[in-house]
């Protein structure tokens, strides 16, 4: 159960970061309203708070989070931007998830 809880916490953290970065992208690159910066800021604050909830050292959390972020970004590409991931995208995101699992759930000596 612990592993699933951590994984879902990483997923929520990644979504919050991607939303916080995607909304300014819409404003800057696609001419959307500058009002999108308000929910973007809130989403990035949520991202920071969620990242702080992880139960291990910050450096280990940040390193492992990168793997989940890659996976969620590829899902975002497909679900939100409507671009189907390539086999290389999927393979890379699975390798990143494997790296996250090794970092977070490997044995610890100390």
From TrEMBL:
Keywords for this protein: Cell membrane, Membrane, Transmembrane, Transmembrane helix
First-listed, main subcellular location of the protein, grouped into a coarse class: membrane
Transmembrane segments: 7-28, 34-53, 62-80, 86-106
Superkingdom field: Bacteria
Subcellular location: Cell membrane
Pfam families: UPF0060
InterPro entries, A to Z: EmrE-like, UPF0060
Annotated HAMAP family: UPF0060
Membrane-protein topology: Multi-pass membrane protein
Similarity section: Belongs to the UPF0060 family.
The protein's name: Uncharacterized protein
Gene Ontology cellular-component annotations: plasma membrane
């Amino acid at each position: 159960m612990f592993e699933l809880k951590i994984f879902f916490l990483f997923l929520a953290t990644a979504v919050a970061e991607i939303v916080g970065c995607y909304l300014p992208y819409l404003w800057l690159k696609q001419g959307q309203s500058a009002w999108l910066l308000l929910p973007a800021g809130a989403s990035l604050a949520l991202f920071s708070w969620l990242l702080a909830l992880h139960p291990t050292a910050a450096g280990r959390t940040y390193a492992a989070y990168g793997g989940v972020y890659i996976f969620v970004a590829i899902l975002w590409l497909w679900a939100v931007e409507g671009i189907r991931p390539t086999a290389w995208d999927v393979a890379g995101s699975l390798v990143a998830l494997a790296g996250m699992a090794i970092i977070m759930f490997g044995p610890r000596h100390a």
